[in-house]
Amino acid sequence: MGHWLERNIIEPGKLPLLCALTAFVLTFVITRVITRLIRAGRGPFGNVQAGGLHIHHVVPGVLLIIIGGFGAVASARHGVGAALSAVIFGVGAGLVLDEFALILHLDDVYWTEAGRQSVEVVVVTAALVGLLLAGFSPFGVNDLSQDELQDRGTVLSTIAVNFFLALLALSKGKPRTALFGAIIPIIALIGAIRLARPGSPWARRFYRRRPRARARSTLRIYHHDRRWTTLSRKLQDLIGGKPDEPVVPAIRR
């Protein structure tokens, strides 16, 4: 284990990235445990108040990101300073992205259906950073040989093709596929050649006069969402907690 860590993490200068990812994941998990305990009325924890104002943990998260980011810029790539700055940054990022939905909606939607977006963003972020840590480079550069890497034209053309495929997947209404496709090009290729999601820019432009393509796209998305949405929601509830049931206003008669 020590040899693997030295060869694959420390020597390539990936120790700060590992520290940041570890701090990010642990912070998110600990924060969710504490917020779920507060929600259930258990334990010694409670919401932070200042003059009657509820201070969300995104606030210290932003401060820690600033401190960790500037610390990383000021420190060398190797050494204790870089690792410490990475940990501070990871903690801050975990706190901020745990309330991503709150920032997006500018409302306290933490325990609502919209709050699921925070869990999804955290999972996607951790997965992408994990791929980078494992040695994958954006736009398929990691798949090139040493001779190809020395050829600037080959590198630029590879990046351009893979960027185009990721952009094509994005235009077809597949943002997650585009994100992961930027790291693993085969995913971008699959997203680029498959049918677009209904309502996506590609579908509005190219399926407008193709009713059969629109029908196939709608049917495929229906089966896909029916198969995976339930599983995805169960995983999100397991990780972040189940949202509150929406309050239905009483109908006056």
UniProtKB/TrEMBL annotation:
The chain crosses the membrane at residues 15-34, 55-76, 82-106, 118-141, 153-170, 177-196. Keywords: Membrane, Transmembrane, Transmembrane helix. The keyword tRNA processing does not apply. The keyword Membrane applies. This is Integral membrane protein. The lineage of its organism: Bacteria, Bacillati, Actinomycetota, Actinomycetes, Kitasatosporales.
